[in-house]
Design goal:
Helix 1 (75-85) crosses helix 2 (98-108), helix 2 (98-108) packs across helix 8 and helix 3 packs antiparallel against helix 4 (148-159). The protein has a single domain, classed as Alpha/Beta hydrolase fold, catalytic domain (Rossmann fold). The chain is globular and about 50 Å long. The longest helix has 12 residues, at 148-159. The termini are far apart. It has helices spanning 75-85, 98-108, 132-140, 148-159, 179-186, 188-191, 194-200, 208-215, 235-242, 260-263, 265-276, and strands at residues 3-5, 11-17, 22-26, 48-52, 90-95, 113-119, 222-227, 248-253, 283-284. A nine-stranded mixed beta sheet has the order 1-2-4-3-5-6-7-8-9, sandwiched between helices. By secondary structure, the protein is α/β, with parallel strands linked by helices. 32% of the residues lie in helices and 16% in strands.
């Protein structure tokens, strides 16, 4: 297990999986160990994944200063990781809450990004958030499933502030509530640093106007990847996030939830490979690749 030392002395770990050209990966959660990503649906057959355990998660050490869990404070960790691995620039993939970190990194170090992939991204760094109404609308798409009647009231109560987080509504986060989804969910408790996650979105973490201004000048191609059954973000919100990038492409995996590589691994890997190889077949949001905005 390779490690490096962050600027504040915290030892951070990362993991290699697969073979081929490197693809650096940031896990979401927020603050969940990279192990939940598995092999990203078999992407390891085509790329050598380098998966970072953010500070206080997985095999990385707990920092002395707990304030360093805040998303913007993690950008320096990513840059030190890149330099440690000897990458002049990188293809970077981020899932869920880690999309915020990836956006902040791209805004600060745009010349280090070759291609950026944002999977079911949390767009808080852009000043966008899924509303309870949007999330409930996505949840209602599952009304015909046997667990819905028990799960929906608890989910609704949690979203409107009148209830606690309850495992009963976890099926809403997956496109299919099958054995693979149940096993994936069951492992989450041990993989997540809840205290760090509470601090990740702390006050002052984001400055959406300046981030948007910086990302408007990002020259790297960006893929924003949404799940058709996901509510955070739903496809409409994910598409709005894609509009922040001048060379963005947008795709929706039909029937997928927040972890699309579990719902249809073959489709997921095919789409990601096509983008990384420069042949996407997705909906382009910005100007054609190779052009810049006026």
């Amino acid at each position: 297990m390779p490690t490096f030392t962050a600027a504040d002395g915290t030892r951070l770990a990362y993991h290699f999986r697969g073979a081929g050209e490197p693809l650096t990966v940031l896990p979401g959660g927020p603050m969940c160990a990279s192990s939940y990503l598995g092999d990203l649906g078999g992407l390891t057959a085509h790329r050598r994944l380098a998966l970072l355990d953010l500070r206080g998660t997985g095999d990385s050490a707990v920092p002395v200063d707990q304030a360093t869990y805040r998303c913007d404070r993690l950008v320096d960790d990513v840059e030190m990781w890149r330099a440690h691995m000897g990458l002049d620039h990188m293809d970077l993939l981020a899932h869920s809450a880690a999309a915020c970190l990836a956006m902040l990194y791209a805004a600060r170090y745009p010349h280090r990004i070759r291609r950026l992939v944002l999977i079911t991204p949390n767009p808080s760094a852009l000043g966008l958030r899924a509303t309870p109404e949007e999330r409930l609308a996505a949840a209602r798409l599952r009304a015909g499933e046997p667990w819905f009647a028990e799960a929906f009231p608890a989910f609704e109560a949690w979203l409107v502030g009148g209830g606690d987080f309850d495992e009963v509504f976890m099926p809403f986060f997956y496109g299919r509530w099958d054995d693979a989804a149940r096993d994936h969910d069951a492992a989450a408790e041990e993989q997540t640093n809840d205290d760090a996650g509470d601090r990740y979105f702390g006050e002052g973490a984001f400055a959406p106007d300046s981030t948007r201004a910086a990302l408007a000048a990002l020259n790297a191609p960006v893929l924003v990847y949404a799940g058709g059954r996901d509510g955070n973000p739903g496809p409409d919100l994910a598409r709005r996030a894609a509009e922040a990038f001048p060379r963005a492409e947008f795709t929706v995996q039909a029937g997928a939830g927040h972890y699309p590589w579990l719902d249809d691994p073959e489709h997921f890997v095919g789409r990601i490979r096509a983008f990384l190889d420069g042949d996407t077949g997705t909906i382009r949001i910005g100007p054609p690749l190779g052009r810049t905005t006026a």
